[in-house]
Write a structure and sequence with these properties.
By secondary structure, this protein is an all-alpha fold. The protein has 17 helices and no strands. The termini are far apart.
Length: about 250
């Protein structure tokens, strides 16, 4: 059977949905009620599909089932990730992103709309946003920086997760010594964003940049600190020297 026909048959079959249901069942058998309560209480995670399975167990279940799929290409893997995302549950989403990252070397510019659709339709909290953006999506932007103009409009989106993603999706690249001008441009666009999770997002991105570019980030902060919300400012300067943090926090 030609490759295109085989892929079409698999994507139209119930195979992805059946595997998603099997994984959901297995995850539900590993719920830790005490862990769930701790996360909901202390980590500002919303109670909207979080089962309460410990991350190590989630990853282990994801790896075990991925072993059945590892010989398939990305365009066969993504429908399985789609089926997991359609459950609306946090833990299956994390496995979906885990599988997408496993085939990251196969991603191309043409896969960008797929990841963008995941952000728009399926990301419902900051851990999901961060997992997707600092792995699969971040790797894609790192390899194809020409996608930047398609990310920039996210800074003006009504969707808080797209706005957060517009910054943190560049963390993968800046950790590898790239995208610093892009990070500064994004931070300027988000500078006065009223959402604290967006503020923390671009502040975190600046913090990651400061590990390789402390002077540049310090200068950026001094230039913009009068307009930066306190939340973003504290995140951005966390890795700077104590003396620089004191200067940055001073309201002149």
């Amino acid at each position: 059977m030609p490759a295109r026909s085989r892929n079409h048959t698999r994507s139209q079959s119930g195979e992805p949905r059946a595997l998603a249901l099997q994984i959901e069942k297995e995850l539900r058998q590993n719920i830790d009620a005490r862990y769930r309560e701790t996360v909901l209480t202390h980590f500002a995670v919303q109670d909207n599909g979080f089962l309460g399975v410990r991350n190590a167990r989630v990853r282990k279940i994801g790896r075990a089932h991925y072993a059945q799929l590892r010989d398939r290409g990305i365009d066969e893997i993504l429908p399985f990730s789609d089926a997991l995302l359609e459950t609306g549950l946090y833990e299956p989403k994390i496995i979906a992103f885990q599988w997408a990252f496993a085939v990251r070397e196969q991603t191309r510019i043409g896969h960008f709309p797929h990841f963008q659709r995941w952000l728009r339709r399926h990301v419902a909290d900051w851990p999901e946003c961060d997992d997707l953006c600092t792995h699969s999506l971040g790797d894609l932007l790192h390899r194809y920086p020409k996608l930047a103009p398609r990310v920039e409009p996210w800074t003006r989106s009504r969707n808080r997760w797209l706005r957060r993603a517009s910054a943190i999706a560049w963390i993968y690249a800046v950790r590898r010594g790239e995208a610093l001008p892009r990070i500064f441009k994004t931070a300027r666009s988000l500078l006065r964003d009223p959402d604290d999770l967006v503020q923390k997002g671009y502040g975190w991105t600046l913090k990651e940049a400061s590990k390789l570019y402390p002077d540049e980030v310090y200068e950026f902060v001094l230039r913009h600190k009068a307009r930066m919300p306190r939340t973003a400012l504290r995140y951005a300067i966390e890795k700077l020297s104590p003396s620089r943090r004191r200067v940055a926090m001073r309201r002149d």
